[in-house]
Specification:
Strands 5-4-1-6-10-7-13 form a seven-stranded mixed beta sheet, sandwiched between helices. A two-stranded antiparallel sheet has the order 2-3. It is globular, with a radius of gyration of 18 Å. 31% of the residues lie in helices and 27% in strands. It has helices at 44-51, 65-72, 87-94, 96-100, 119-127, 163-166, 171-176, 189-200, 224-231, 253-268, and strands at residues 6-11, 30-33, 40-43, 57-61, 78-81, 106-111, 134-139, 149-153, 156-161, 180-188, 204-210, 213-219, 236-240. It is α/β, with parallel strands linked by helices. Strand 11 (204-210) and strand 12 (213-219) form a beta hairpin. It contains ten helices and 13 strands. Helix 8 crosses helix 9 (224-231).
Length: 275
């Protein structure tokens, strides 16, 4: 497989509701802070794009879209606007037309706020498509916190279960679910495009705060596709990362500080570069 045979889709549409005191797009937060933790250089999204395989790339935008586009034009991606923030599945629906127009059959889906996934990890995830129709990246943290978990049977992922559901499982079943979902996937493009129509026909209604009031919102979840594929006899695989830091998502100020410290130690200082 040549790296150019991979299409990469990067989700960079959201602001990040838990990034307190910051109103920008969280994927543009700096890995090298200069004027406080929110200002500096080396945007997270740029670091993500550098780590992806060669080949066409699409960046899904919404919040502060022009700023995201300005920061990433050097990578010459296709920009796809997500009309409303309606879940990870909604993000994929926004890129459906782009995907349907392509012939390359290997697809990588990642997030713009997870900067430390190694190129070899992406390559391994894509390589899983030799034997599976889709694959999820998993990790095994010491504390599962409120992560979604992968429910598996051997090397197959049967479903991805969010914390609000698995927290009610019996303690024995909870203990057996040790692999958490990183939110990064590979899929055969043609198969995924086919299931986007299924996903679109089955929105979920969730309660979210809007302008100080709880409001019913229709959302779409990429994780639902795993169950749809399994129900139809298709196979979803899994790749595990050894280092939990690879899957660190920068979604609150504490995670940002952790990412900045890690980047300083393992990327700059290891290369002999002064921050």
């Amino acid at each position: 497989m040549r790296s150019a045979d991979v299409i990469s889709v990067v989700m960079a549409a959201g602001r990040g509701s838990r990034m307190n005191a910051f109103d920008g797009n969280k994927t543009l937060l700096p890995l090298v802070p200069e004027k406080g933790r929110f200002e500096g250089r080396e945007p997270i999204l740029v670091h993500v794009l550098r780590s992806l395989p060669e080949g066409e790339k699409a960046v899904i935008v919404h919040h502060r879209a022009e700023e995201v586009m300005d920061a990433t034009r050097a990578f010459a991606p296709t920009y796809c606007r997500q009309p409303e923030l309606n879940g990870t599945g909604g993000a994929l629906l926004a890129v459906r037309e782009f995907l349907a127009s392509k012939t390359c059959d290997r697809l990588l889906i990642t997030m713009g706020d997870v900067p430390f996934v190694r190129p070899e990890t992406y390559a391994k995830l894509v390589g899983t498509l030799d034997t599976h129709h889709m694959a999820a990246l998993g990790f095994q943290p010491a504390d599962k916190k409120q992560y979604g978990v992968l429910e598996t049977d051997g090397d197959r992922v049967l479903k991805i279960t969010e914390w609000k559901y698995w927290r009610d499982y019996p303690a024995e079943k909870q203990a057996a679910l040790g692999v958490c979902n990183a939110g990064i996937y590979a899929a055969r493009r043609e198969v995924l495009v086919r299931y986007l129509s299924v996903l679109e026909s089955r929105p979920q209604t969730v309660q979210k705060e809007r302008n100080g009031k709880m409001t019913a919102i229709r959302e779409y979840f990429l994780t639902d596709i795993v169950e749809y594929m399994n129900a139809d006899g298709l196979s979803v695989g899994c790749v595990l990362v050894r280092d939990e830091m690879e899957t660190l998502g920068v979604d609150d100020p504490q995670a940002l500080e952790k990412a900045q410290a890690y980047y300083r130690r393992h990327c700059l200082e290891a290369a002999g570069v002064r921050p």
